[in-house]
Amino acid sequence: MSDWSREPSGLTETDQSLTSSGNDSTMNDRTAMVAARLKAVYRKVVLPVEKKYRYDYFFESPFLSAIEFDSKPQVMLVGQYSVGKTSFIRYLLGRDFPGQRIGPEPTTDRFTVLINGPEERTIPGNALSVHPDLPFRGLERFGVNFLSRFEGSQLPSSVLRAITLVDTPGILSGEKQRVNRGYDFTQVVSWFADRADLIILLFDAHKLDISDELKGTIDVLKGHEDKIRCILNKADQIDRQQLMRVYGAPLWSLGKTMTSPEVARVYVGSFWEEPLKNLDNAELFEQEEKDLMKDLAILPRQSAVRKINELVKRIRKVKTLAYIVGYLKSQMPAVMGKKRKQQKLINDLPNVFRVILKKYNLSAGDFPKQQKLINDLPNVFRVILKKYNLSAGDFPDISKFSQKLKDVKFSEFSSLSNSMIENLDKSLVQEIPKLMEELPSEKDTPETLRAKLGAVAITNPNSANVPVPTRANKFGKGREEEGSNPFGYSATNEDHYWALQDSAERLYESFEALGPVGGFLSPTVARDVLVKTGLEKDQLRQIWNLSDIDRDGHFDHHEYVVAMFLCDAVIQKGRPIPKELPTSVIPPSKRHLLK
Questions:
Q1: Residues paired with 555 in a beta bridge
Q2: How far apart are CA 39 and CA 68, in angstroms?
Q3: Residue among 338, 322, 532 at smallest CA distance from 417
Q4: Tens digits of per-residue pLDDT, 436-479?
Q5: What pLDDT, in 10s, does the model give residues 530-552?
Q6: Are 398 and 350 in contact (CB under 8 A)?
Q7: CA 559 to CA 547: how far, in whole Å?
Q8: Do residues 394 and 58 make contact, with C-beta atoms less than 8 angstroms apart?
Q9: In what order do the strands lie in the sheet with 121-124?
Q10: 274-305 as b/e, with b when 16 or more CB fall inside 10 Å?
Protein backbone atom coordinates (compact mmCIF):
# COMPACT_ATOMS: atom_id res chain seq x y z
CA MET A 1 0.00 0.00 0.00
CA SER A 2 2.94 2.32 0.59
CA ASP A 3 3.60 2.45 -3.17
CA TRP A 4 0.23 4.12 -3.63
CA SER A 5 1.36 7.02 -1.45
CA ARG A 6 3.97 8.05 -3.96
CA GLU A 7 3.07 10.08 -7.02
CA PRO A 8 4.13 8.40 -10.29
CA SER A 9 6.88 10.20 -12.14
CA GLY A 10 5.40 9.87 -15.64
CA LEU A 11 1.78 10.88 -15.10
CA THR A 12 0.20 11.05 -18.61
CA GLU A 13 0.62 14.84 -19.02
CA THR A 14 4.00 16.43 -19.74
CA ASP A 15 5.33 19.41 -17.82
CA GLN A 16 4.91 22.83 -19.34
CA SER A 17 7.52 25.50 -18.68
CA LEU A 18 5.21 28.50 -18.50
CA THR A 19 6.05 31.77 -16.83
CA SER A 20 3.82 34.43 -15.39
CA SER A 21 5.31 36.96 -17.79
CA GLY A 22 3.59 35.19 -20.65
CA ASN A 23 0.23 35.58 -19.00
CA ASP A 24 0.94 39.20 -18.09
CA SER A 25 1.63 39.83 -21.77
CA THR A 26 -1.66 38.15 -22.79
CA MET A 27 -3.63 40.12 -20.20
CA ASN A 28 -1.94 43.40 -21.20
CA ASP A 29 -2.63 42.70 -24.86
CA ARG A 30 -6.32 42.14 -24.12
CA THR A 31 -6.57 45.31 -22.01
CA ALA A 32 -4.68 47.27 -24.68
CA MET A 33 -7.09 46.01 -27.35
CA VAL A 34 -10.09 47.12 -25.28
CA ALA A 35 -8.46 50.49 -24.54
CA ALA A 36 -7.70 51.10 -28.22
CA ARG A 37 -11.29 50.44 -29.29
CA LEU A 38 -12.71 52.53 -26.44
CA LYS A 39 -10.42 55.39 -27.45
CA ALA A 40 -11.74 55.15 -31.00
CA VAL A 41 -15.36 55.25 -29.78
CA TYR A 42 -14.66 58.19 -27.50
CA ARG A 43 -12.67 60.18 -30.05
CA LYS A 44 -15.07 59.67 -32.97
CA VAL A 45 -18.45 59.58 -31.23
CA VAL A 46 -18.40 60.92 -27.66
CA LEU A 47 -15.84 63.75 -27.70
CA PRO A 48 -17.56 65.77 -30.48
CA VAL A 49 -20.82 65.71 -28.45
CA GLU A 50 -18.97 66.72 -25.26
CA LYS A 51 -17.43 69.71 -27.03
CA LYS A 52 -20.66 70.73 -28.73
CA TYR A 53 -22.70 70.74 -25.49
CA ARG A 54 -19.88 71.78 -23.11
CA TYR A 55 -19.77 68.65 -20.96
CA ASP A 56 -16.51 69.79 -19.34
CA TYR A 57 -18.21 72.96 -18.07
CA PHE A 58 -21.50 71.56 -16.80
CA PHE A 59 -20.11 68.37 -15.19
CA GLU A 60 -16.73 69.91 -14.21
CA SER A 61 -14.98 66.96 -15.83
CA PRO A 62 -12.25 67.61 -18.41
CA PHE A 63 -12.20 65.77 -21.71
CA LEU A 64 -10.50 62.38 -21.49
CA SER A 65 -6.96 62.00 -22.79
CA ALA A 66 -5.63 58.93 -24.58
CA ILE A 67 -3.37 57.99 -21.67
CA GLU A 68 -6.38 57.70 -19.33
CA PHE A 69 -7.62 54.74 -21.37
CA ASP A 70 -4.21 53.06 -21.16
CA SER A 71 -3.58 53.61 -17.45
CA LYS A 72 -3.27 50.85 -14.86
CA PRO A 73 -6.09 50.15 -12.39
CA GLN A 74 -6.11 52.73 -9.59
CA VAL A 75 -6.90 52.12 -5.91
CA MET A 76 -7.70 55.19 -3.78
CA LEU A 77 -7.66 55.15 0.03
CA VAL A 78 -9.88 57.65 1.86
CA GLY A 79 -10.48 58.21 5.57
CA GLN A 80 -9.96 60.47 8.55
CA TYR A 81 -6.46 61.05 9.86
CA SER A 82 -4.74 58.21 11.74
CA VAL A 83 -7.07 55.45 10.50
CA GLY A 84 -4.17 53.54 8.92
CA LYS A 85 -4.29 54.50 5.22
CA THR A 86 -0.52 54.82 4.78
CA SER A 87 0.12 51.75 6.96
CA PHE A 88 -2.27 49.78 4.77
CA ILE A 89 -0.29 50.78 1.67
CA ARG A 90 2.97 49.84 3.38
CA TYR A 91 1.45 46.44 4.22
CA LEU A 92 0.48 45.90 0.58
CA LEU A 93 3.92 46.83 -0.71
CA GLY A 94 5.78 44.98 2.02
CA ARG A 95 8.18 47.91 2.46
CA ASP A 96 8.52 51.65 3.08
CA PHE A 97 8.09 54.05 0.18
CA PRO A 98 9.55 57.51 -0.58
CA GLY A 99 7.68 60.32 1.15
CA GLN A 100 5.99 57.98 3.62
CA ARG A 101 4.69 59.63 6.79
CA ILE A 102 3.02 57.58 9.55
CA GLY A 103 1.87 58.79 12.96
CA PRO A 104 -1.14 59.28 15.28
CA GLU A 105 -1.48 62.93 14.18
CA PRO A 106 -2.51 64.14 10.66
CA THR A 107 0.79 63.22 8.97
CA THR A 108 -0.17 62.74 5.32
CA ASP A 109 -0.88 66.32 4.23
CA ARG A 110 -0.92 65.67 0.50
CA PHE A 111 -2.24 63.42 -2.22
CA THR A 112 0.42 60.82 -2.99
CA VAL A 113 0.36 58.60 -6.06
CA LEU A 114 2.50 55.47 -5.83
CA ILE A 115 3.85 54.28 -9.18
CA ASN A 116 6.31 51.64 -10.31
CA GLY A 117 9.76 52.71 -11.46
CA PRO A 118 13.41 51.56 -11.57
CA GLU A 119 14.58 53.85 -8.75
CA GLU A 120 13.21 55.29 -5.53
CA ARG A 121 12.31 58.98 -5.74
CA THR A 122 9.54 61.51 -5.22
CA ILE A 123 8.09 63.49 -8.14
CA PRO A 124 6.63 66.99 -7.50
CA GLY A 125 2.97 67.48 -8.40
CA ASN A 126 3.58 70.07 -11.11
CA ALA A 127 5.95 67.72 -12.93
CA LEU A 128 3.62 64.77 -12.38
CA SER A 129 0.66 66.60 -13.93
CA VAL A 130 2.48 67.12 -17.24
CA HIS A 131 4.13 63.69 -17.45
CA PRO A 132 3.23 62.29 -20.90
CA ASP A 133 2.88 58.69 -19.68
CA LEU A 134 0.75 59.33 -16.59
CA PRO A 135 -3.01 60.16 -16.51
CA PHE A 136 -2.84 63.19 -14.21
CA ARG A 137 -2.95 66.16 -16.60
CA GLY A 138 -6.57 66.84 -15.64
CA LEU A 139 -5.43 67.84 -12.13
CA GLU A 140 -3.99 71.10 -13.49
CA ARG A 141 -7.47 72.60 -13.23
CA PHE A 142 -7.19 72.62 -9.40
CA GLY A 143 -4.33 75.13 -9.53
CA VAL A 144 -0.90 75.58 -8.00
CA ASN A 145 -2.17 75.38 -4.40
CA PHE A 146 -3.26 71.81 -5.01
CA LEU A 147 -0.29 70.77 -7.16
CA SER A 148 2.05 71.85 -4.37
CA ARG A 149 0.19 69.32 -2.19
CA PHE A 150 0.39 66.58 -4.78
CA GLU A 151 3.36 64.28 -5.32
CA GLY A 152 4.38 60.97 -6.84
CA SER A 153 6.26 58.25 -5.01
CA GLN A 154 8.18 56.01 -7.39
CA LEU A 155 9.73 52.71 -6.37
CA PRO A 156 10.30 49.24 -7.87
CA SER A 157 7.42 47.02 -6.74
CA SER A 158 5.69 43.91 -8.07
CA VAL A 159 2.39 45.29 -6.72
CA LEU A 160 2.80 48.63 -8.51
CA ARG A 161 3.56 46.88 -11.78
CA ALA A 162 -0.11 45.90 -11.78
CA ILE A 163 -1.91 48.78 -10.03
CA THR A 164 -1.46 52.42 -8.99
CA LEU A 165 -2.17 53.41 -5.37
CA VAL A 166 -3.48 56.84 -4.31
CA ASP A 167 -2.96 57.92 -0.69
CA THR A 168 -5.09 60.89 0.38
CA PRO A 169 -4.69 63.40 3.24
CA GLY A 170 -6.45 62.58 6.48
CA ILE A 171 -9.94 64.05 6.48
CA LEU A 172 -10.37 66.78 9.07
CA SER A 173 -13.31 67.95 11.14
CA GLY A 174 -12.97 71.67 11.86
CA GLU A 175 -14.15 74.40 9.47
CA LYS A 176 -10.88 76.32 9.93
CA GLN A 177 -8.84 73.25 9.00
CA ARG A 178 -10.88 72.76 5.82
CA VAL A 179 -10.44 76.38 4.73
CA ASN A 180 -6.68 76.17 5.25
CA ARG A 181 -6.27 73.45 2.63
CA GLY A 182 -6.22 76.07 -0.11
CA TYR A 183 -8.05 73.87 -2.63
CA ASP A 184 -11.37 72.05 -2.94
CA PHE A 185 -10.58 68.71 -1.28
CA THR A 186 -13.88 67.02 -2.15
CA GLN A 187 -13.60 67.98 -5.83
CA VAL A 188 -10.12 66.47 -6.02
CA VAL A 189 -11.43 63.27 -4.40
CA SER A 190 -14.27 63.28 -6.94
CA TRP A 191 -11.74 63.56 -9.79
CA PHE A 192 -9.79 60.54 -8.54
CA ALA A 193 -13.00 58.61 -7.79
CA ASP A 194 -14.11 58.95 -11.42
CA ARG A 195 -10.91 57.23 -12.49
CA ALA A 196 -10.41 54.74 -9.66
CA ASP A 197 -11.14 51.04 -10.03
CA LEU A 198 -11.45 50.56 -6.26
CA ILE A 199 -12.10 53.04 -3.42
CA ILE A 200 -11.14 51.91 0.08
CA LEU A 201 -12.93 53.89 2.81
CA LEU A 202 -11.24 53.34 6.19
CA PHE A 203 -12.61 53.83 9.70
CA ASP A 204 -10.83 53.54 13.05
CA ALA A 205 -12.48 51.30 15.66
CA HIS A 206 -11.84 54.10 18.17
CA LYS A 207 -12.93 56.99 15.94
CA LEU A 208 -16.30 56.18 14.39
CA ASP A 209 -17.89 59.63 14.07
CA ILE A 210 -18.35 61.00 10.55
CA SER A 211 -17.19 64.61 10.38
CA ASP A 212 -18.67 67.25 8.05
CA GLU A 213 -15.74 66.96 5.64
CA LEU A 214 -15.96 63.16 5.62
CA LYS A 215 -19.69 63.39 4.92
CA GLY A 216 -18.98 65.80 2.07
CA THR A 217 -16.39 63.39 0.72
CA ILE A 218 -18.79 60.44 0.89
CA ASP A 219 -21.38 62.58 -0.89
CA VAL A 220 -19.10 63.07 -3.91
CA LEU A 221 -18.51 59.31 -4.03
CA LYS A 222 -22.19 58.72 -4.85
CA GLY A 223 -22.49 56.97 -8.16
CA HIS A 224 -19.38 54.91 -7.37
CA GLU A 225 -20.94 52.61 -4.76
CA ASP A 226 -19.85 49.53 -6.72
CA LYS A 227 -16.21 50.55 -6.25
CA ILE A 228 -16.33 51.30 -2.51
CA ARG A 229 -14.98 48.86 0.10
CA CYS A 230 -15.36 49.97 3.74
CA ILE A 231 -12.82 48.88 6.37
CA LEU A 232 -13.11 48.97 10.15
CA ASN A 233 -9.40 49.07 10.97
CA LYS A 234 -7.52 48.48 14.25
CA ALA A 235 -10.28 46.13 15.41
CA ASP A 236 -7.71 43.89 17.15
CA GLN A 237 -7.37 46.51 19.88
CA ILE A 238 -10.83 45.74 21.28
CA ASP A 239 -12.28 42.49 22.59
CA ARG A 240 -15.11 40.45 21.07
CA GLN A 241 -17.92 42.08 23.06
CA GLN A 242 -16.72 45.60 22.22
CA LEU A 243 -16.37 44.64 18.54
CA MET A 244 -20.04 43.61 18.40
CA ARG A 245 -21.03 47.05 19.67
CA VAL A 246 -18.55 48.97 17.53
CA TYR A 247 -19.33 47.13 14.28
CA GLY A 248 -22.85 48.52 14.09
CA ALA A 249 -21.71 52.14 14.44
CA PRO A 250 -20.16 52.59 10.96
CA LEU A 251 -23.07 50.70 9.40
CA TRP A 252 -25.54 53.08 11.03
CA SER A 253 -23.48 56.17 10.14
CA LEU A 254 -22.95 55.05 6.54
CA GLY A 255 -26.62 54.25 6.16
CA LYS A 256 -27.52 57.84 7.08
CA THR A 257 -24.73 59.39 5.02
CA MET A 258 -25.00 57.32 1.85
CA THR A 259 -28.84 57.42 1.90
CA SER A 260 -29.03 53.91 0.50
CA PRO A 261 -31.45 51.15 1.56
CA GLU A 262 -28.67 48.57 1.19
CA VAL A 263 -26.26 48.00 4.06
CA ALA A 264 -22.63 48.59 3.06
CA ARG A 265 -20.20 45.69 3.48
CA VAL A 266 -17.64 46.55 6.17
CA TYR A 267 -14.42 44.51 6.37
CA VAL A 268 -13.14 44.14 9.92
CA GLY A 269 -9.52 43.58 10.93
CA SER A 270 -6.06 45.01 11.47
CA PHE A 271 -4.62 45.87 8.09
CA TRP A 272 -0.90 46.18 8.66
CA GLU A 273 2.01 43.80 9.16
CA GLU A 274 2.10 43.75 12.97
CA PRO A 275 0.70 40.68 14.84
CA LEU A 276 -2.79 41.02 16.29
CA LYS A 277 -2.88 42.49 19.79
CA ASN A 278 -5.97 40.47 20.65
CA LEU A 279 -6.44 36.97 19.18
CA ASP A 280 -10.10 36.58 20.20
CA ASN A 281 -11.24 37.24 16.64
CA ALA A 282 -8.17 36.03 14.76
CA GLU A 283 -10.06 33.64 12.47
CA LEU A 284 -12.64 36.30 11.59
CA PHE A 285 -9.95 38.90 10.85
CA GLU A 286 -8.00 36.46 8.69
CA GLN A 287 -11.05 35.60 6.60
CA GLU A 288 -12.05 39.27 6.27
CA GLU A 289 -8.55 40.15 5.07
CA LYS A 290 -8.58 37.32 2.53
CA ASP A 291 -11.90 38.57 1.12
CA LEU A 292 -10.60 42.11 0.75
CA MET A 293 -7.28 41.02 -0.73
CA LYS A 294 -9.16 38.89 -3.26
CA ASP A 295 -10.88 42.05 -4.54
CA LEU A 296 -7.50 43.74 -4.86
CA ALA A 297 -5.79 40.76 -6.45
CA ILE A 298 -8.16 40.44 -9.40
CA LEU A 299 -8.18 44.16 -10.33
CA PRO A 300 -5.88 43.76 -13.37
CA ARG A 301 -8.12 41.04 -14.80
CA GLN A 302 -11.15 43.33 -14.36
CA SER A 303 -9.46 46.42 -15.73
CA ALA A 304 -10.91 46.06 -19.24
CA VAL A 305 -14.47 45.70 -17.91
CA ARG A 306 -14.00 48.73 -15.64
CA LYS A 307 -12.87 50.89 -18.55
CA ILE A 308 -15.95 49.87 -20.52
CA ASN A 309 -18.22 50.53 -17.53
CA GLU A 310 -16.86 54.04 -16.95
CA LEU A 311 -17.21 55.02 -20.59
CA VAL A 312 -20.81 53.76 -20.69
CA LYS A 313 -21.65 55.91 -17.64
CA ARG A 314 -20.05 58.91 -19.31
CA ILE A 315 -21.92 58.36 -22.60
CA ARG A 316 -25.26 58.27 -20.76
CA LYS A 317 -24.47 61.58 -19.05
CA VAL A 318 -23.34 63.15 -22.31
CA LYS A 319 -26.54 62.03 -24.04
CA THR A 320 -28.71 63.49 -21.28
CA LEU A 321 -26.79 66.79 -21.34
CA ALA A 322 -27.34 67.05 -25.11
CA TYR A 323 -31.10 66.69 -24.60
CA ILE A 324 -31.14 69.32 -21.82
CA VAL A 325 -29.07 71.88 -23.71
CA GLY A 326 -30.98 71.21 -26.93
CA TYR A 327 -34.29 71.72 -25.13
CA LEU A 328 -33.16 74.99 -23.52
CA LYS A 329 -31.98 76.22 -26.93
CA SER A 330 -35.32 75.31 -28.51
CA GLN A 331 -37.21 77.38 -25.91
CA MET A 332 -35.37 80.61 -26.76
CA PRO A 333 -37.19 83.19 -28.93
CA ALA A 334 -35.75 83.84 -32.36
CA VAL A 335 -35.33 87.64 -32.02
CA MET A 336 -36.69 89.50 -28.97
CA GLY A 337 -36.73 88.79 -25.24
CA LYS A 338 -33.87 86.28 -25.08
CA LYS A 339 -32.53 87.50 -21.73
CA ARG A 340 -35.97 87.50 -20.10
CA LYS A 341 -36.74 84.01 -21.46
CA GLN A 342 -33.41 82.65 -20.22
CA GLN A 343 -34.02 83.91 -16.69
CA LYS A 344 -37.50 82.40 -16.73
CA LEU A 345 -36.11 79.01 -17.76
CA ILE A 346 -33.48 79.11 -14.99
CA ASN A 347 -36.09 80.03 -12.37
CA ASP A 348 -38.31 77.24 -13.64
CA LEU A 349 -35.49 74.67 -13.98
CA PRO A 350 -37.31 71.95 -11.99
CA ASN A 351 -40.15 72.15 -14.50
CA VAL A 352 -37.67 72.02 -17.37
CA PHE A 353 -36.10 68.89 -15.90
CA ARG A 354 -39.51 67.26 -15.48
CA VAL A 355 -40.24 67.88 -19.18
CA ILE A 356 -36.93 66.35 -20.22
CA LEU A 357 -37.29 63.51 -17.72
CA LYS A 358 -40.53 62.38 -19.31
CA LYS A 359 -39.74 63.20 -22.93
CA TYR A 360 -36.47 61.29 -22.99
CA ASN A 361 -37.49 58.61 -20.47
CA LEU A 362 -34.74 59.39 -17.96
CA SER A 363 -34.60 58.13 -14.38
CA ALA A 364 -35.38 60.13 -11.25
CA GLY A 365 -32.50 58.36 -9.53
CA ASP A 366 -30.14 61.12 -10.67
CA PHE A 367 -32.04 63.59 -8.49
CA PRO A 368 -31.73 62.01 -5.01
CA LYS A 369 -31.63 65.40 -3.29
CA GLN A 370 -34.41 66.88 -5.42
CA GLN A 371 -36.97 64.08 -5.09
CA LYS A 372 -39.52 66.49 -3.61
CA LEU A 373 -39.02 68.86 -6.55
CA ILE A 374 -39.36 66.01 -9.03
CA ASN A 375 -42.68 64.95 -7.55
CA ASP A 376 -44.01 68.50 -8.06
CA LEU A 377 -42.65 69.09 -11.56
CA PRO A 378 -45.24 69.92 -14.26
CA ASN A 379 -46.58 67.44 -16.76
CA VAL A 380 -44.48 68.80 -19.63
CA PHE A 381 -41.36 67.30 -18.08
CA ARG A 382 -43.12 63.95 -17.84
CA VAL A 383 -44.00 64.11 -21.55
CA ILE A 384 -40.37 64.68 -22.60
CA LEU A 385 -39.15 61.90 -20.33
CA LYS A 386 -41.53 59.38 -21.85
CA LYS A 387 -40.99 60.43 -25.46
CA TYR A 388 -37.21 59.99 -25.49
CA ASN A 389 -36.93 57.02 -23.11
CA LEU A 390 -34.28 58.59 -20.87
CA SER A 391 -33.30 57.83 -17.28
CA ALA A 392 -33.47 60.37 -14.46
CA GLY A 393 -30.35 58.76 -13.04
CA ASP A 394 -28.34 60.41 -15.84
CA PHE A 395 -29.41 63.97 -15.00
CA PRO A 396 -27.05 66.47 -13.31
CA ASP A 397 -27.76 67.99 -9.90
CA ILE A 398 -30.49 70.62 -10.38
CA SER A 399 -29.07 73.26 -8.02
CA LYS A 400 -25.52 73.02 -9.38
CA PHE A 401 -26.78 72.98 -12.95
CA SER A 402 -28.87 76.14 -12.39
CA GLN A 403 -25.81 77.94 -11.02
CA LYS A 404 -23.85 76.97 -14.13
CA LEU A 405 -26.63 78.23 -16.39
CA LYS A 406 -26.49 81.72 -14.86
CA ASP A 407 -23.04 82.26 -16.38
CA VAL A 408 -23.89 81.28 -19.97
CA LYS A 409 -26.17 82.48 -22.77
CA PHE A 410 -28.81 80.02 -23.94
CA SER A 411 -28.84 81.69 -27.35
CA GLU A 412 -25.26 80.47 -27.85
CA PHE A 413 -26.20 76.84 -27.13
CA SER A 414 -26.15 74.29 -29.93
CA SER A 415 -29.40 72.78 -31.12
CA LEU A 416 -30.08 69.09 -30.57
CA SER A 417 -28.27 67.00 -33.18
CA ASN A 418 -30.22 63.83 -33.91
CA SER A 419 -27.30 62.34 -35.85
CA MET A 420 -25.01 62.71 -32.81
CA ILE A 421 -27.63 61.12 -30.56
CA GLU A 422 -27.97 58.24 -33.03
CA ASN A 423 -24.19 57.72 -32.98
CA LEU A 424 -24.19 57.64 -29.16
CA ASP A 425 -27.03 55.10 -29.19
CA LYS A 426 -25.19 53.01 -31.77
CA SER A 427 -22.08 52.92 -29.60
CA LEU A 428 -24.16 51.75 -26.61
CA VAL A 429 -26.19 49.19 -28.55
CA GLN A 430 -23.64 47.85 -31.05
CA GLU A 431 -20.01 48.89 -30.58
CA ILE A 432 -19.59 48.33 -26.84
CA PRO A 433 -21.58 45.04 -26.74
CA LYS A 434 -19.26 43.73 -29.49
CA LEU A 435 -16.32 44.72 -27.34
CA MET A 436 -17.80 42.87 -24.36
CA GLU A 437 -17.94 39.72 -26.48
CA GLU A 438 -14.15 39.84 -26.73
CA LEU A 439 -13.86 39.39 -22.96
CA PRO A 440 -14.06 35.99 -21.17
CA SER A 441 -17.56 34.85 -20.22
CA GLU A 442 -19.34 31.74 -18.97
CA LYS A 443 -20.49 30.99 -22.54
CA ASP A 444 -16.93 30.44 -23.73
CA THR A 445 -15.77 26.97 -24.69
CA PRO A 446 -12.29 25.88 -23.55
CA GLU A 447 -11.00 26.72 -27.04
CA THR A 448 -12.42 30.27 -27.16
CA LEU A 449 -11.37 30.86 -23.55
CA ARG A 450 -7.83 29.81 -24.43
CA ALA A 451 -7.84 32.26 -27.35
CA LYS A 452 -8.98 35.12 -25.09
CA LEU A 453 -6.88 34.39 -22.02
CA GLY A 454 -3.86 32.54 -23.35
CA ALA A 455 -2.43 29.20 -22.30
CA VAL A 456 -0.89 30.48 -19.06
CA ALA A 457 -4.17 31.84 -17.70
CA ILE A 458 -5.83 28.48 -18.39
CA THR A 459 -3.03 26.62 -16.60
CA ASN A 460 -2.87 29.04 -13.68
CA PRO A 461 -5.82 31.43 -13.32
CA ASN A 462 -4.07 33.33 -10.51
CA SER A 463 -0.91 34.18 -12.43
CA ALA A 464 -2.25 37.61 -13.47
CA ASN A 465 -3.24 38.66 -9.95
CA VAL A 466 -1.74 41.41 -7.84
CA PRO A 467 0.74 39.77 -5.41
CA VAL A 468 -1.08 40.78 -2.21
CA PRO A 469 0.36 39.85 1.22
CA THR A 470 -0.52 36.50 2.83
CA ARG A 471 1.04 36.58 6.28
CA ALA A 472 -0.68 34.02 8.42
CA ASN A 473 1.84 34.46 11.25
CA LYS A 474 0.24 37.78 12.18
CA PHE A 475 -2.94 35.85 13.03
CA GLY A 476 -1.13 33.77 15.63
CA LYS A 477 -0.26 30.87 13.34
CA GLY A 478 3.12 29.16 13.03
CA ARG A 479 5.13 28.83 9.87
CA GLU A 480 3.83 25.31 9.16
CA GLU A 481 0.31 26.72 9.03
CA GLU A 482 1.24 29.44 6.57
CA GLY A 483 1.82 27.24 3.58
CA SER A 484 4.14 29.98 2.30
CA ASN A 485 6.83 27.65 0.93
CA PRO A 486 6.58 27.73 -2.90
CA PHE A 487 7.48 24.01 -2.97
CA GLY A 488 4.50 23.06 -0.85
CA TYR A 489 4.25 21.04 2.35
CA SER A 490 6.61 18.25 3.26
CA ALA A 491 5.41 14.64 3.71
CA THR A 492 5.91 15.02 7.47
CA ASN A 493 3.02 17.48 7.59
CA GLU A 494 0.27 14.88 7.39
CA ASP A 495 -2.58 17.37 7.65
CA HIS A 496 -1.60 19.46 4.62
CA TYR A 497 0.65 17.29 2.44
CA TRP A 498 -0.88 15.97 -0.78
CA ALA A 499 1.18 13.54 -2.84
CA LEU A 500 -0.59 14.57 -6.06
CA GLN A 501 -0.07 18.33 -5.81
CA ASP A 502 2.45 18.48 -8.68
CA SER A 503 0.19 16.29 -10.82
CA ALA A 504 -2.75 18.61 -10.09
CA GLU A 505 -0.81 21.55 -11.52
CA ARG A 506 0.22 19.61 -14.62
CA LEU A 507 -3.28 18.28 -15.26
CA TYR A 508 -5.14 21.56 -14.79
CA GLU A 509 -4.98 22.45 -18.49
CA SER A 510 -6.27 19.06 -19.63
CA PHE A 511 -9.09 19.30 -17.07
CA GLU A 512 -10.14 22.73 -18.37
CA ALA A 513 -9.96 21.48 -21.96
CA LEU A 514 -12.77 19.04 -21.12
CA GLY A 515 -15.14 21.97 -20.52
CA PRO A 516 -16.12 21.71 -16.84
CA VAL A 517 -19.34 23.51 -15.91
CA GLY A 518 -19.03 25.43 -12.67
CA GLY A 519 -15.76 23.58 -11.99
CA PHE A 520 -17.24 20.09 -12.43
CA LEU A 521 -17.09 17.49 -15.21
CA SER A 522 -20.47 15.92 -15.92
CA PRO A 523 -20.83 12.13 -15.43
CA THR A 524 -20.90 11.63 -19.21
CA VAL A 525 -17.71 13.60 -19.87
CA ALA A 526 -15.88 11.99 -16.94
CA ARG A 527 -17.02 8.52 -18.07
CA ASP A 528 -15.74 9.09 -21.61
CA VAL A 529 -12.33 10.14 -20.27
CA LEU A 530 -12.03 6.95 -18.22
CA VAL A 531 -13.25 4.72 -21.08
CA LYS A 532 -10.50 6.08 -23.34
CA THR A 533 -7.88 4.64 -20.98
CA GLY A 534 -8.79 1.14 -22.26
CA LEU A 535 -9.25 -0.35 -18.82
CA GLU A 536 -11.92 -2.95 -18.19
CA LYS A 537 -15.36 -1.89 -17.03
CA ASP A 538 -14.95 -3.46 -13.58
CA GLN A 539 -11.66 -1.62 -13.08
CA LEU A 540 -13.21 1.68 -14.10
CA ARG A 541 -16.08 1.10 -11.68
CA GLN A 542 -13.60 0.70 -8.83
CA ILE A 543 -11.62 3.76 -9.90
CA TRP A 544 -14.82 5.85 -10.07
CA ASN A 545 -15.85 4.79 -6.56
CA LEU A 546 -12.46 5.78 -5.19
CA SER A 547 -12.21 9.07 -7.13
CA ASP A 548 -15.73 10.44 -6.62
CA ILE A 549 -14.93 11.19 -3.01
CA ASP A 550 -17.96 13.37 -2.25
CA ARG A 551 -20.33 10.96 -4.08
CA ASP A 552 -22.01 13.66 -6.18
CA GLY A 553 -21.57 11.87 -9.52
CA HIS A 554 -19.29 14.62 -10.89
CA PHE A 555 -15.53 15.13 -10.99
CA ASP A 556 -13.99 18.38 -9.79
CA HIS A 557 -10.34 19.10 -10.59
CA HIS A 558 -8.91 17.23 -7.60
CA GLU A 559 -11.11 14.17 -8.13
CA TYR A 560 -10.10 14.14 -11.79
CA VAL A 561 -6.43 14.12 -10.70
CA VAL A 562 -7.05 11.15 -8.37
CA ALA A 563 -8.79 9.23 -11.16
CA MET A 564 -5.94 9.87 -13.62
CA PHE A 565 -3.44 8.84 -10.97
CA LEU A 566 -5.21 5.53 -10.41
CA CYS A 567 -5.51 4.83 -14.15
CA ASP A 568 -1.85 5.62 -14.70
CA ALA A 569 -0.78 3.42 -11.80
CA VAL A 570 -2.70 0.43 -13.25
CA ILE A 571 -1.64 0.99 -16.88
CA GLN A 572 1.94 2.19 -16.48
CA LYS A 573 2.98 0.52 -13.22
CA GLY A 574 0.80 -2.57 -13.30
CA ARG A 575 -0.39 -2.03 -9.73
CA PRO A 576 -3.66 -3.48 -8.44
CA ILE A 577 -6.44 -1.05 -7.60
CA PRO A 578 -6.46 -0.46 -3.81
CA LYS A 579 -9.56 -1.07 -1.72
CA GLU A 580 -9.24 2.41 -0.24
CA LEU A 581 -7.15 5.49 -0.93
CA PRO A 582 -4.10 6.26 1.23
CA THR A 583 -4.50 9.49 3.19
CA SER A 584 -1.67 11.18 1.25
CA VAL A 585 -3.54 10.64 -2.05
CA ILE A 586 -6.84 12.10 -0.80
CA PRO A 587 -7.06 15.88 -1.38
CA PRO A 588 -6.72 17.60 2.04
CA SER A 589 -9.97 19.51 1.46
CA LYS A 590 -11.92 16.22 1.16
CA ARG A 591 -10.38 14.09 3.89
CA HIS A 592 -13.11 14.95 6.34
CA LEU A 593 -15.60 13.22 4.04
CA LEU A 594 -13.93 9.86 4.55
CA LYS A 595 -13.58 10.03 8.32
A1: 521
A2: 9
A3: 322
A4: 877 765 555 555 545 555 544 444 444 456 666 666 566 666 54
A5: 999 999 999 999 999 999 998 88
A6: yes
A7: 5
A8: no
A9: 121-124, 150-155, 111-116, 164-167, 74-79, 198-204, 228-233, 266-268
A10: eebebeebbeebbebbeebbebbbbbbbbbbe
